[in-house]
Write a structure and sequence with these properties.
mainly alpha, two-stranded antiparallel sheet
């Protein structure tokens, strides 16, 4: 749940990060490691588990109480408006990735949604585009790399951000660094989007509190369950076979070890 990265003064930093991402991309793409929909490749499990424990502590001390406070103090209608606003500001990044993937229909849908909701939807706090049955085509750089043929690489757990893969971790860096809204908007306007995104993440944590708490605090091995949930659902999201890539979040494969 990190804020998005900003500012023209960081142009050299952006270039350096993109260069590092490109180098890592080429390194991963050249790897012979391939993970099927039923396999887990986790060569750094020991360090990943340490990060997972750190993330659990941060969630318990910060994210869970803050999200519960946000969810109980802010009415559902207001949380929906914040979520709509945050989603609308993320559409330009979706459009860029749609185009990089050759998904012209998705780019068209997202462009229409952004323009329509930004005007008729009062800056995006309302979502009239959905009433017209124009869905959002949500995507990211991780999916773009997938479309380009990059393999997912090893499983990684990122500090604060949680489960990922080498491919998605590189994509996340670029999602933060090259986001058009945070890049083009001047200060302090860009921080409004950051605040809305953080609030939206807290709202998601509140809405999914039962599932998340079950995984993090009730399962026999929260790391293993979070890992398999992420990998199988991410592969399904990227076009895997539905029969072998969907996992019920309440199905704890390690419960029998208790």
């Amino acid at each position: 749940m990190l804020p998005k990265i900003q500012n023209t003064s960081c142009a050299l930093t952006r270039s350096f990060v993109v260069l590092c991402g490109a180098l890592a991309l080429s390194a991963c793409a050249s790897s012979d490691q391939f993970v099927s929909s039923n396999e887990v490749y986790d060569p750094n499990e020991e360090s990943n588990r340490q990060i997972h424990e750190f993330n659990r502590k941060v969630d318990k001390v910060v994210f869970r109480p803050v999200s519960n406070g946000y969810g109980t103090a802010i009415p559902e209608e207001a949380r929906t408006m914040v979520s709509n606003f945050a989603d609308n500001l993320s559409l330009p990044a979706d459009i860029v990735n749609n185009l990089l993937q050759g998904d012209l229909r998705g780019a068209g849908n997202n462009t229409f949604r952004f323009l329509f909701n930004s005007t008729i939807g009062l800056g995006g706090i309302a979502d009239p585009a959905s009433n017209l049955k124009v869905p959002r085509r949500e995507t990211d750089f991780g999916e773009t790399f997938h479309v380009w043929g990059m393999k997912e690489g090893a499983y990684v757990e990122l500090p604060l951000l949680g489960p990922s893969t080498e491919r998605d971790a590189i994509g996340t860096i670029l999602d933060f660094t090259l986001d058009p809204v945070s890049t083009l908007l001047p200060s302090p306007e860009k921080f409004v989007g950051t605040a809305a995104n953080v609030a939206d993440r807290m709202g998601d944590r509140y809405e999914l509190r039962g599932t998340i708490d079950s995984i993090l605090y009730d399962s026999a091995d929260s790391y293993a369950q979070a890992r398999i949930l992420y990998l199988q659902n991410r592969r399904f999201e990227l076009g895997g076979d539905q029969s072998d890539t969907y996992l019920d979040p309440y199905d704890d494969p390690y419960a029998e070890l208790e």
